[in-house]
């Protein structure tokens, strides 16, 4: 069964590792009670860097518990739910193979997959792993950002049910592969999901596609 193993909320922390603002909400901890997910974000969470986070299409972030286990073994660290900065730690969900625009029902909420996470220096410094951005990018299993279509409460143990999938068959991992891994061979395939990408990310993907076509 695909389930939420943990719902996580930010503990705002400060330090040089936290980037240009000196503070970050990437450190998230499991919530003891149901949490409301809304179109503007997760109640009780905190977004410090609003330039790069907190848009409607980043209302929530989900990461696979199996990936936390992978990185725990890879890095020799004991990573626990919330350590990837995720609001939802999922079990039995290969989120990176979700389709752009896929819709999930979880608890009382309906969420829509909008795109992959882009690893950054704050993430690497939070884990205290030099070169993590490159390693995370090479692995390409990023978790997913989610928009909230129907607000509702989500709790640990809630089932993740797929409500609908678009016809284009473009996975989150494929968008990431084109935009961050240089996989120009995916250009025409990824073009099929452009209408389902948020405008900012659509422009990035379209630029990669145009570049690939120009050099073909």
From TrEMBL:
Gene3D superfamilies given in the database record: PK beta-barrel domain-like (2.40.33.20)
Domain named MOSC: residues: 29-163
GO terms of molecular function: catalytic activity; molybdenum ion binding; pyridoxal phosphate binding
InterPro entries found in the cross-reference section: Benzoxazolinone_Detox_Enz, MoCF_Sase_C, Pyrv_Knase-like_insert_dom_sf
PANTHER family: PROTEIN YIIM (PTHR30212)
Pfam families to which the protein is assigned, alphabetical: MOSC (PF03473)
Entry protein name: MOSC domain-containing protein
């Amino acid at each position: 069964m695909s389930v939420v193993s943990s719902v996580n909320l930010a503990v705002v922390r400060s330090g040089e590792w936290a980037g240009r603002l000196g503070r970050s909400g990437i450190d998230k901890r499991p919530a003891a009670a149901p949490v409301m997910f809304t179109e503007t974000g997760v109640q009780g969470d905190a977004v410090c860097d609003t330039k790069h986070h907190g848009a409607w299409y980043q209302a929530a972030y989900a990461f696979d518990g199996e990936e936390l286990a992978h990185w725990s073994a890879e890095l020799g660290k004991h990573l626990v739910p919330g350590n990837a900065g995720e609001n939802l730690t999922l079990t039995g969900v290969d989120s990176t193979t979700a389709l752009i625009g896929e819709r999930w029902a979880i608890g009382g909420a309906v969420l829509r997959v909008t795109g992959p996470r882009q690893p950054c220096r704050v993430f690497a410094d939070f884990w205290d792993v030099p070169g993590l951005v490159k390693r995370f990018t090479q692995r390409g299993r990023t978790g997913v950002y989610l928009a909230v279509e129907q607000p509702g409460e989500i709790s640990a143990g809630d089932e993740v049910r797929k409500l609908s999938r678009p016809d284009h068959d473009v996975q989150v991992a494929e968008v990431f592969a084109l935009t961050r891994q240089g996989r120009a061979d995916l250009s025409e395939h990824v073009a099929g999901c452009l209408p389902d990408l948020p405008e900012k990310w659509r422009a990035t993907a379209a630029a990669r596609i145009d570049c690939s076509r120009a050099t073909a």
